[in-house]
Design a protein that fits this description.
With 375 residues, the chain is of the alpha/beta class. The protein is 49% helix and 15% strand. The chain has helices spanning 4-11, 23-32, 49-58, 69-80, 82-85, 127-135, 143-158, 170-181, 184-187, 203-206, 209-214, 271-286, 289-304, 311-316, 318-330, 334-359, 363-374, and strands at residues 47-48, 88-97, 102-110, 116-120, 163-168, 190-196, 218-223, 238-241, 258-259, 262-263, 265-266. The protein starts with a helix and ends with a helix.
């Protein structure tokens, strides 16, 4: 079994001239936008990864800003490799806006083959970032998607190079959205769009001709039990890849398996992914947009009472926060409680019904049982 660390060990000594850009390079650069470069790189500065890593090593970065422990090891390994060390990074952006309910991050990588990879960050550790994700279930577009369009337009305007656009999780969603709705004059320069297990879109987006025309350039990768990457609505084809984790934990790209310069591809997603995909889409069809919005807004209003602004802080004081959350729920008016209960129950009923349907014997089995009874 091998992952992106093994890839850097095996192929990190090969330049892009020796081995052209591939889907694993995409995944590594998609992860790159998660790194906290706030005190390392000014937006308009251009430095190599090698130089950025030296600055990184001199700083004691707060642990809460590192989303995964693997990130700490990935960047030094990239910076030491022949393949990535001389790539240049610029236009780092990390924006949090509570009023707009927006969490947006991106970075641009200038590569030795004269192409550019625009990397959009997925959801970070902040509650507002998660709130924006949930807002996708009832909004046609969210602030980060619009910010992604502006960012891509800015990069394409400044650099005339061919473009690759990608991201992981919400970053993959933004990569597809930005590429679909950027200025028409820039679209022909886009080589590929990489969506690494990113959620889908509102129905209005997938019906939009601009989205439809971009699909031929979109490469979507999902693990075999993908849940995040199959949320909402998709129109593009997708490639299923092997992960060593289970369930929703397969969203962790460090668990994605590869061989050489390609992912280990599978024929299709497994039954668990299909089951959750069907259940969530039924829930979206049965629960109105207004009810979804009211439910999600209420959930995050309750969470805000804890005064924690990140998941880390929420977990650190979990006992105290749990008591606060329970007390807040008890004090809610009965109408709000009823709305929340009905919304949750709707999903559980759908899941239960789908499970019952799944457990029903097939027609063939019924016929066999009938014949056995006759005998």
């Amino acid at each position: 079994m091998a992952n992106i660390f093994d890839y850097l060990t095996w192929r990190g000594d090969l330049t892009l001239a020796q081995s052209e850009f591939n889907e694993i390079d995409n995944l590594i650069l998609a992860r790159f936008s998660y790194f906290p470069f706030d005190h390392i790189l000014n937006k308009d500065e251009i430095i190599t990864m090698k130089e950025a890593q030296k600055r990184w090593a001199r700083l004691e970065l707060e642990k809460e800003n590192i989303l995964q422990k693997e990130d700490i090891d990935l960047f030094p390994q990239m910076a030491k490799s022949v393949r990535f060390s001389d790539m240049k990074m610029t236009k780092y952006v990390n924006k949090i806006n509570l009023e707009e309910e927006k969490q947006f991050g991106a970075i641009t990588i200038l590569m030795p083959d004269d192409t550019i990879y625009v990397s959009f960050r997925g959801t970070d550790n902040t509650l507002v970032g998660w709130k924006e994700d949930f807002n996708m279930s009832f909004r046609e577009k969210v602030p980060s998607q619009l910010e992604a369009v502006s960012y891509l337009n800015e990069i394409a305007c400044q650099y005339p190079n061919p473009l690759r656009v990608g991201g992981h999780s919400k970053g993959g969603n933004m990569a597809v959205y930005a590429s679909s709705f950027c200025k028409e004059s820039f679209k022909e320069r886009i080589i590929n769009v990489y969506n690494n297990d990113g959620p889908g879109f509102h129905e209005a987006i997938i019906e939009n001709p601009k989205y439809q025309r971009m699909l031929e350039k979109v490469h979507t990768y999902v693990p075999q039990t993908s849940i995040i990457g199959r949320l909402l609505y998709h129109e593009e084809n997708y490639t299923v890849i092997q992960s060593t984790q289970k369930g929703v934990m397969q969203h962790d790209l460090y668990t994605w398996q590869l061989e050489g310069k390609e992912f280990i591809h599978l024929k299709e997603v497994d039954k668990g992914s299909k089951f959750m995909d069907k259940a969530i889409k039924q829930w979206l069809d049965e629960v109105s947009k207004e009810q979804r919005e009211a439910f999600i807004n209420q959930i995050f209003e309750i969470l805000q009472v804890t005064e924690a602004d990140t998941l880390t802080k929420m977990r650190e004081n979990w006992l105290k926060n749990a008591k606060v959350l329970m007390e807040t729920y008890k004090n809610m008016d009965e109408e709000t409680k009823k709305m929340m209960t009905q919304t949750i129950e709707a999903l559980f009923i759908i899941i239960k019904n789908n499970m019952m349907e799944k457990l029903k014997p097939t027609d063939k089995r019924k016929k066999i049982n009938k014949k056995e009874g006759e005998n």
